[in-house]
Structure formats: structure tokens, C-alpha cells
Amino acid sequence: MKVRNCKECGKLFQYDGISKLCYRCRKKDDEDFRKVKEYLYENPKETITVVSEETQVPEDKILRYLREGKLEIVGENPGILLDCESCGKSIRTGRYCEQCARALERGFKGDGEREKERKPQERSTRERMHIAQMKNKRK
User: Fold this and answer.
1) Residues sharing a CB contact under 8 Å with residue 100, sequence separation 6 or more, in sequence order
2) Is residue 89 part of a domain?
3) Are residues 32 and 70 both part of a single domain?
4) Residue 64 lies in a domain
5) Region (Disordered) spans which residues (predicted)?
């Protein structure tokens, strides 16, 4: 059983491997998300400040929903701006634009392939046995 501190309230809770929030804060977060989602459905062109004021949900939480991919900016909404963390290009959801996400993915895949090449070749059982026998003969 893993125990962690809630990122929202700081209380200890049993960590489920998914959420960094305790049950109460997760329930409140889900309710806040529902409020924001419903408000944006009815008012898709509103600014993030207005959405925050009308729903009583902090702006940083709304931005987190966008970064996590829970919300997406639909159409041309000048009131909500989200930038790629790598190049600064405007994006609709997530943390990276498509080009930067692909570049990161290629980089990760490339590192894995290079890691395989760096690993020493496994010796066969026969070779290991031969070396062990030679060591025993020297003694």
C-alpha cells in the first residue's frame, strides 16, 4: 500500500497509481471540470478569465485541464491561448504541437535503439563454460 500527500490539500491518502489527489479533492476536481466543460459548451468563445469567474474555477486549473488533454480549444478562440512548451506555437490541447511531439517521439525511439546497440553482446553458455574451465585450470 503506497501512501502519498494530496497535491491539493496536503493530506495523506492511499495512492492508486493514477491520481495525485485524495478522494475528496479528486471529487471536487471532477466537479470543477464538469462545470468548466458545460460552461464552455454553452459559451465556446469566452475568455479564460470569464470562464474562471463564471464557474469559480481557478484559471490555472482550467489551463491544467487543457494541458492534460481533458479540454480542447474548439475553433478560433482568441480568449484562450495555449502554447507549445517546446517551440511556443499556438496549440489547442496538450503540451506540445504535433511537430514537437513527433520530434520527441523520434528522439525517444532513437535513444532506445542506441541503447540496444551499446549493450554488450551476451556470451553463449559454451563460451562462459570454457572461460570457467580455464580459470579452474589456472588454480
Assistant:
1) 84, 85, 86, 87, 89
2) yes
3) yes
4) yes
5) 109-139
The tally of domains found in the chain comes to: 2
72 with 88, same domain: the answer is: no
pLDDT band at 115 (very low <50, low <70, confident <90, very high): low
Angle at CA of residue 47, ends 81 and 64, nearest 5°: 55
Instruction: Report d(CA 55, CA 43) in Å as an integer.
Output: 12
The more confident residue out of 38 and 134 is 38
Interstrand relation of 12-14 and 3-5 (parallel, antiparallel or unpaired) = antiparallel
The DSSP secondary structure of 57-97, one letter per residue, reads: --HHHHHHHHHHTSS---S--TT---B-TTT--B-SSSSS-
**Is a pLDDT exceeding 80 seen at residue 73?**
no
pLDDT tens profile 21-57 = 999 999 999 999 999 999 998 988 888 899 999 999 9
Q: What range defines the domain where residue 70 resides?
A: 25-80
Cell of 66: 487543457
Torsions phi, psi for 5 (to 5 deg): -90, 135
Q: In the chain, helix, strand, coil percent, each to 5?
A: 55, 5, 40
